[in-house]
Amino acid sequence: MREGRDASEDVLRPPDEEVLTFPFRALALIVALAMLGAGCGSTELARSTELAGSRASPARSGLHSPLSPPAPPVPSRNTAALDDPAERARFACAVEVQRAQEFDPGRSLRDGSLLGAVLGGAAGAGLGALFGLIGDIPGHGASAGAIVGGGFGLMLGGLLRLDADSAAYERGLAACVAARTVSPPAPTPGLVEYRLRTLSMRHEAFASFLASGELVDGAAGPGLIRLAGAADAGSLERGIVLYDRHIAPVPASMLAAFGATAADARIKLGGAGRDYWDEARWYGTPGERTVWMITSRNRRPQELRRAGLSDVTALAQFRPGRPPLFGATPQAAVAVPLSLVHHIEDRGARGPSVVKALDPRRALGLVVARNDDAVFPDRVYLVVTHALTAATYEAVLAWGDRGLERGTTEPRGE
Fold first, then answer.
1. CA distances in angstroms from 94 to 37, 102, 110, 338, listed in the order given
2. Closest C-alpha to 98, from 313, 246, 305, 255
3. What's the per-residue H, E or C state across the chain?
4. Cα–Cα 20 to 30 A to 356, which of 3, 28, 108, 411?
5. What pLDDT is stored for residue 149 in this prediction?
6. How many CA atoms lie within 13 A of 353 on its CB side?
7. Cα separation of 91 and 97, whole Å?
8. What confidence tens digit (pLDDT) does each residue in 105-126 have?
9. How far is the C-alpha of 197 from the C-alpha of 203, rounded, in Å?
10. pLDDT at 279
11. Is residue 246 over pLDDT 50?
12. How many CB atoms lie within 10 A of CB 114?
């Protein structure tokens, strides 16, 4: 039951509700105005400080200030620490020959497939029309022959072109290695060499190497060790490797969004013969951060499902997921909308950081920008925090076709 009235408002109120008197109302108004003024003042101060920081030099703004250097990942696979002169000479030759020949395995497959489809379709149409004359159906025979011949040429043409370009690359590489003296270049004073190796493959093949217990986020086991060893030995089946996914430096406009520094890297593309790993090498300062993106020539497969990332002791498997609310639990791999990345890129240093949800204790983190257009592939960023000493970072990326049924048919491993 409601009892009592407020004389000023003529409204019934419960008997236990206390109405503020005029002095208390005035005091509450003064406190509210004071809090509002303080909030506006702090907002203006933050805005002016932020503007001043964006106009300041990167060294003074702290955008590229060194982070806590992590330990080098996977000591047994740290090729940078081995410092093999012969291996260095071979890598330098591989970079030079690929640049001179403009060799790209993904492009070789694409161009060969297109040429094979045209030639196969033309040959199939001619043969189909010829045999169609026997049954007085040359038109139907030509169309059937074009379909069959074009499909056969599409599959065979890409492999033949890739083998031919790979053979030419191997000949140039052998000649370069024979002519080059095996002597490592002098390191730049104050800088340390870092390496990033990546391998893109189909998700079904990636998962086939792992046991059920290794599909849990952060799990490390013999499956990924076997997978990396097979890639080193060149014993992976060619059909499971994606030749069109390669390492590339991010545009300068994206460095501020990741709080990263630019790196002058030499990049070797994988896919020639049995050399599956892409590899980038650069010199940097311990504690700084660099970021790299994975480019794609083909639309499919579109979605990055899982990834094996370097850890201190071994490769560990992760599945990119949405960042936790308020960054309560930092992650090794996160997935964000691509539109958000574009928004942050447009805002530059004044926008939120893309890497705020990544675990700062890890040397290698993964950010997947889910493409808003489901037809096109995701954009993948690998964030490297420089160790104190020479370090090699590795990432095995598992791609699959984008589909709504994945959320119910594939276990999350949680």
1. 64, 12, 22, 33
2. 246
3. CCEEEECCCCEEECCCCCCCCHHHHHHHHHHHHHHHHHHHHHHHHHHHHHHHHHHCCHHHHCCCCCCCCCCCCCHHHCHHHHCCHHHHHHHHHHHHHHHHHCCCHHHHHHHHHHHHHHHHHHHHHHHHHHHHCCCCCHHHHHHHHHHHHHHHHHHHHHHHHHHHHHHHHHHHHHHHHHHCCCCCCCCCCCCEEEEEEEEEEEHHHHHHCCCHHHHCCCECCHHHHHHHHHHHHCCCCHHHECCCEEEEECCHHHHHHHCCCCCCCEEECCCECCECCEEEEEEECCCCEEEEEEEECCCCCCEEEEEEEECCCCEEEECCECCCHHHCCCECEEEEEHHHHHHHHHHHHHCCCHHHHECCCCCEEEEEEECCCCCCCCEEEEEEECCCCCEEEEEEEEEECCCCCHHHHCCCCC
4. 411
5. 75
6. 13
7. 10
8. 888 878 888 888 888 778 877 7
9. 18
10. 95
11. yes
12. 15
Q: Minimum mean pLDDT among 62-71, 271-280, 299-308: which range?
A: 62-71
Q: What is the pTM of this model?
A: 0.74
Token pair listed for 341 = 């990345």
On whether the CB atoms of residues 201 and 398 are closer than 8 A, the answer is yes
CA neighbor of 142 nearest in space, from 153, 134, 150, 132: 132
Residue 373, both tokens: 């257009």
Is 130:116 a contact under the CB 8 Å cutoff? no
HSE of 336, CA atoms in CB hemisphere, 13 A: 23
The residue-averaged pLDDT of 279-295 equals 93
Q: How far is CA 294 from CA 9, 66, 99, 257, in A?
A: 66, 25, 19, 17
The residues spanned by each domain of the chain are 75-82+187-409, 105-179
How far lies 72's CA from each of 98, 265, 266, 361, in Å?
Answer: 29, 19, 20, 12
How far apart CA 199 and CA 224 sit, in angstroms, is 12
Quote the crossing angle between the two packed helices 138-179 and 85-101, to the nearest 10°: 140
Tokens standing for residue 114: 């297109």
Q: Which residues contact 372 (CB under 8 A, 6 or more apart)?
A: 337, 338, 339
